[in-house]
């Protein structure tokens, strides 16, 4: 008797088991056991695929006619079941108008047993229960997925301005209230103290800085064990580059003082952005007006030592003012010899910098010389006969030669590389073949003038003596000669004649 009723007992057991599977309650429990959470604006993948064993047993049937139909049960926009996407056996694709072109099924994945529904970008109204019916060959597959949406929003529309306090709100479609909330910035846990305040799933950030940019992620924990998270990529409107910078410019050159925003305000719907430049030593410089692309750079056509100093650019955005400070440092070259430089002179070129920051170092380079091909990254020396000089803030030329003519460049370098440079043109106008050192040039000139003066005096004296000698008689004995008597002088002439004869004797 027992053997007779054993098959009947097994049959009844199977019928009861099938009744449990198809009963509405059992189907409801099984239908929504898969839950997927996705971020608003991101990609949501509703899984539906064959197991490896099922794929191994039925992969041949996947190459035959395969049909996939995804439906949505209820939701915010629809209270009844409606079609989301359908791929017919012929390959024709149908998509609901509200899901075009956001919903899709990868055709290439169908033959690999993957029938997952992809929704991108995900919207908040996409929350609901989804069901897939797949027919491949003679087999049928059912997939049920509950889709939940989690999102992080900011209370300020558009970009957040630097130093402007704002709130981040973390929300999800979960019906319960979160029992735990955590915030992370760049994967580091954010302390709820100081500039940060957490309240009911929201995080307040006071006076944000440029370092607060980047991904902010919130984690929500619920009493039913659900843990959901979402990320918000925070963008802050501020200055490109550091808030305080130094501009190195050569004396007499033109330069620009930067004041540029890292984002275009107009592209984010922010209007009426204005800038105001001022010199901390000289006062107000003027308004730059409204810029379309957020560039308020101040152009200086020619700068000198008097222009060096600190400048400030104040930009007003949506009632908030942000400030950028710029230090203008002037590079100058001062020669030890003013005016023309004579060959053989001892010359020193001193390179100086206003408002040094303490990390700069100087390098000299001869641009117009063959020596410029040498490495000037580090301090080197160049032989000038038996003399040499080291690169640094002071360039020393013990004995200037024609090879030194040309342009000398003094460049300033820092940890980040080359910062600026100034050029000095060296010209040699007075060439001396040989002579005393330049420091004795004045004495030589005075001695030369004295020698010429004495030589002229001697020549004048010799010339005077020579003229006097030319005018005197050549025969001193004739100085006492008595002239011969003239006719008609009588006795007088005779007396004179006797005197002549006496003189001759």
Automatic annotation (TrEMBL):
Entry-linked Gene3D superfamilies: Immunoglobulins
Region (Disordered): 479-505
Subcellular location, record wording: Cell membrane; Secreted
Keywords: Adaptive immunity, Cell membrane, Disulfide bond, Glycoprotein, Immunity, Immunoglobulin domain, Membrane, Repeat, Secreted, Signal, Transmembrane, Transmembrane helix
Stretches that traverse the bilayer: 446-466
An example Gene Ontology biological process: adaptive immune response
Molecular function GO labels: MHC class II protein binding; protein tyrosine kinase binding
Database matches in SMART domains: IG
Primary localization class, coarse: membrane
Recorded topology in the membrane: Single-pass type I membrane protein
Domain Ig-like: 24-148, 168-229, 242-327, 329-429
Key word Disulfide bond present: yes
Leader peptide range in chain numbering: 1-19
Gene Ontology cellular component annotations, sorted alphabetically: external side of plasma membrane; extracellular region; membrane raft
InterPro entries membership: Ig-like_dom (IPR007110), Ig-like_dom_sf (IPR036179), Ig-like_fold (IPR013783), Ig_sub (IPR003599)
PANTHER family named among the record's database cross-references: MICROFIBRIL-ASSOCIATED GLYCOPROTEIN 3, T-CELL SURFACE GLYCOPROTEIN CD4
Record's subunit section: Interacts with MHC class II (MHC-II); selectively recognizes stable complexes of peptide and MHC-II. Interacts with FGL1 (via the Fibrinogen C-terminal domain).
Function, in words: Lymphocyte activation gene 3 protein: Inhibitory receptor on antigen activated T-cells. Delivers inhibitory signals upon binding to ligands, such as FGL1. FGL1 constitutes a major ligand of LAG3 and is responsible for LAG3 T-cell inhibitory function. Following TCR engagement, LAG3 associates with CD3-TCR in the immunological synapse and directly inhibits T-cell activation. May inhibit antigen-specific T-cell activation in synergy with PDCD1/PD-1, possibly by acting as a coreceptor for PDCD1/PD-1.
Family: Belongs to the LAG3 family.
Protein's recorded name: Lymphocyte activation gene 3 protein
Organism encoding this protein: Alligator mississippiensis (American alligator)
Record gene name: LAG3
